[in-house]
Amino acid sequence: MARPKIALIGAGQIGGTLAHLAALKELGDVVLFDIADGTPQGKALDIAESGPSEGFDATLKGTTDYADIAGADVCIVTAGVPRKPGMSRDDLLGINLKVMKSVGEGIKENAPDAFVICITNPLDAMVWALQQYSGLPAEKVVGMAGVLDSARFRHFLSVEFGVSMKDVTAFVLGGHGDTMVPSARYSTVGGIPLPDLVEMGWTTQEKLDAIIQRTRDGGAEIVGLLKTGSAFYAPATSAIEMAEAYLKDQKRVLPCAAYCNGEIGVDGMYVGVPTVIGAGGIEKVIDIKLNKEEQVMFDKSVDAVKGLVEACKAIDSNLA
Ligand code: APR
Questions:
Q1: Could you tell me the sign of the dihedral formed by the alpha carbons of 39, 40, 41, 46, in that order?
Q2: CB 258, CB 142: distance < 8 Å
Q3: Residue of 20, 31, 34 to test ligand 1 pocket, by largest number of atoms within 8 Å of CB
Q4: Hey, what CATH class is 5-144 in?
Q5: What pLDDT, in 10s, does the model give residues 29-45?
Q6: Which of 46, 100, 227, 299 is deepest in the core (most CB within 10 A)?
Q7: Which helix (DSSP H) or strand (DSSP E) does residue 300 occupy?
Q8: Cβ–ligand 1 contact at 219 (below 6 Å)
Q9: 20 classed as catalytic
Q10: 59 marked as part of a ligand binding site
Q11: How many CA atoms lie within 13 A of 210 on its CB side?
């Protein structure tokens, strides 16, 4: 059987890291696409030259021609601009919406059967627009945010509790912005929910609240440190986890920006929700029950995403 084909649209910081990870994990052959001639070719060649030492079997190709992504099984989209210190993800909307139009048309034309993972910010609005521009079924177009936000939450929790990250589970829901909802009740250490751990005296509510806020600010913390761009190692790793779930039909339960049809009270838009990812793409959106306090936070986050979607519609009246 031929190897799967993984097309990476955008060969910047995240795109290059995605290519490296996909090759190291032998997920398939990789095509790096970018409009900046030389960048995708240079990165593809550099990573291919790491193959003999690492011993992976995967071909890598860099291109500025959409025809080269033909027949891709997975497309991961990072094309666009990242934020700089002082910018919110929402400040990128105008520029990145135009990029989504050209990327969506490129995918529609060349890789209409792909599972598409969008990373470009502001995430929830960009994945919504990308689905419309590409015309692909909603279950095949998904946004990467929840896996990353949850990984940040899990990392901070593992440090606080002094335990392995493997034994910490976490769920972050809602939009990928300042209003995201890290759920303490659905997050656990060794299966024990966080509120129980507070009651047991293993941590305090104050410390937990600080970790939740640090999770919300996780992207900005990295932007503040890097100064010239935004995070790329953890975002790329998160998207690769989702791509692997699809390619290997793993039925992973992962929080993603998925198209909701009434689940958790959300209808006709993309927002971060728990999903099952397998060979069918988003095979299920898990309709979890939120308590009153969580629902208020979630609804606020959904409203923030609605505002971004409206801003997209105001820019391009073809979006509905
Ligand atoms: N088509 C293809 N590639 C494009 C296009 C386009 N229309 N416009 C820009 N690009 C490319 C740029 O040439 C650049 O190589 O997208 C790449 C983006 O790479 P970086 O600037 O390094 O950004 P990165 O850190 O990878 O983040 C990309 O992901 O997390 C989000 O907010 C982040 O929206 C940003 C995206």
A1: positive
A2: yes
A3: 34
A4: alpha beta
A5: 999 999 999 999 999 99
A6: 100
A7: helix 292-315
A8: no
A9: no
A10: no
A11: 7
Whether the model pTM is above 0.95: yes
pLDDT per position as a tens digit, 69-83:
999 999 999 999 988
Q: Determine which one of 20, 43, 154, 176 is catalytic.
A: 176
Tell me: pLDDT of 90 over 90: no
Number of C-beta neighbours around residue 306 at 10 A? 16
Q: Are 270 and 124 contacting, i.e. CB atoms less than 8 angstroms apart?
A: yes
How far is the C-alpha of 129 from the C-alpha of 102, rounded, in Å?
A: 11
DSSP string, 83-111: --TT--GGGGHHHHHHHHHHHHHHHHHH-
Binding site membership of 230 for ligand 1 (Cβ less than 6 Å): yes
Matching residue, tokens 């997975």: 74
Closest CA to 173 of 265, 38, 80, 294: 294
pLDDT of the residue at 83:
85
Looking at domain 146-311, which CATH architecture does it have? Alpha-Beta Complex (3.90)
**Cis bond upstream, residue 137 (ω within 30):** no
Report yes or no: 137 and 149 within 8 Å, Cβ to Cβ: no
Q: If you ran DSSP here, which 8-state letter would residue 192 be given?
A: E
Query: Could you state, in order of their start, the residue ranges of all structural domains in the chain?
Result: 5-144, 146-311
> Beta 60-63 vs 168-173: how paired, if at all?
unpaired
